[in-house]
Amino acid sequence: MTRSSDARTPLPAFQLGIILFIQAAEPITASVIFPFVNQFVLESGVTGGDERKVGYYAGIIGSLFFLSEFVTVLFWSRLSDRIGRKPVLLAGMVGLFVTILSAGLSKSYAAFALSRCIQGAFNGNVGVAKNVMVEITDSSNIADAFSFLPPVWTMGNTFGPLIGGELADPGSRWPGTFGKIPFFIEYPYFLPCATASFFALLCSILGALVLKETHPTKLAEKRQSNLAASRRDYGSINNESVEEYPAAEDTSSAADASSPSIRSVLIQPIVISLTTHAFQAVTMESFRTLLPLMLSTSIHLGGLALSSARIGTIMAIWGFCNGGFQLVFFARAIRKFGPKKTFGIAYGSYAICFALYPIMSYFAKRANGVDAKVICVLVVQLSCFVLGAMSYGSNQLFIIAAVPGQNSLATVNGLTQMVSSIMRSLAPSISSSLFSLSVEHNLLGGYLVYLIIVLTIMVGLYAASRLPDKIEGGR
């Protein structure tokens, strides 16, 4: 990333757009199964017809995805240092295309889980896209570039379930058309998976045609190759030009040295930034897990007893609002308040989100339903979460600024994604289990889970106080 203290550099809109388009494929293919995974588990027979076990087996599928991502993310990042960013990104897109298509053709629980597991492995190259974003920006416009990430992921996580919900079991939904095709009767979840896989395939084709390589070493090799070719063509030899780029052996050495050890990059600023990233990831994923759980739970157990359709509508509206807010206000907040203040305010707002759950439940119990007071509290809660989502982008800026050198970028981004993956694999099971325990044993009136998470956020805010007041090129 080129450092600049001058006026903001214009964003490379076309290349940034291609990278964001590729990024969108990952949340779409990851979330397309959410609306029908529980039904698939039940129909697969793995539960023996016991509906109470569905959540357990569905949770295993979700955990396998993120655990596979955790295991492979550093491999992809370091591989991109050796062979370049572009081939690794394209391999990931092709892998997503094949694996989500395979999931749609699965009949058994084991086959579906295996497909999901392999899909998570290919999804591990998500950190490589962030490397590209860093390499095509500088310190004057990187906040603007990263402000597009939350909207892209939000939109992907909105459209994925929308595709899965609308296109699942087309034979039953449209008996006059798809119902007459035996294939869609035999494979009821192929259509949504195929639609999502087509998007991944489109990304791979588009990337192959127009995405440019950004790795500095690979760019130097290309320039050196072009220079050598021009010398052969024109016979002009200039000693000064010969030394402008490293020799082939030196370039190879640079590539070998471009993947430093994990221990060498774990300097204090990186450790602090990764710690706050871990708190942010587990908090955000806990909220995403508890929101639909609380909204669907019976009122007397502390929920709102909303239907799946209403929950889907709420989450879709929330997703669009979140994406638009991040796009409009994130970069402005960074320039006005700086990354540290932005992170502190945003992450602190998560505490309000969780503290509002008991209040919302209290009003729902009094009204024995969802009245205007409950809706007002829900709107405030989701607004606070939209503000809290700014903590993701601001924390990314600290991580990038703390990278000790260009050759460490892929390793650090790989570590960041590993931390995110392991937190996202643990948060759903931990938060939902705490919710069940709190309700089942009436711990703190059934609200103990929210107190524990709020206290966790307080610890995260303490960790955030160790972040530097300014980052290079920032406030």
Question: Could you please describe the fold and organization of this structure?
Answer:
- GO terms for molecular function: transmembrane transporter activity.
- The chain crosses the membrane at residues 54-76, 88-106, 189-211, 290-309, 345-364, 370-390, 443-465.
- By secondary structure, the chain is mainly α.
- The chain has 3 domains: 1-214, MFS general substrate transporter like domains (Growth Hormone, Chain: A); 218-256, no CATH class; 260-475, Up-down Bundle (Growth Hormone, Chain: A), CATH 1.20.1250.20.
- It is 76% helix and 0% strand.
- The protein has helices at residues 13-31, 37-44, 54-83, 85-104, 109-122, 126-135, 142-146, 149-167, 170-173, 182-186, 190-210, 216-234, 239-242, 248-257, 262-265, 268-296, 308-367, 372-388, 390-402, 409-440, 448-464.
- Helix 1 (13-31) runs parallel beside helix 4 (85-104), helix 1 packs across helix 8 and helix 4 (85-104) runs antiparallel to helix 6.
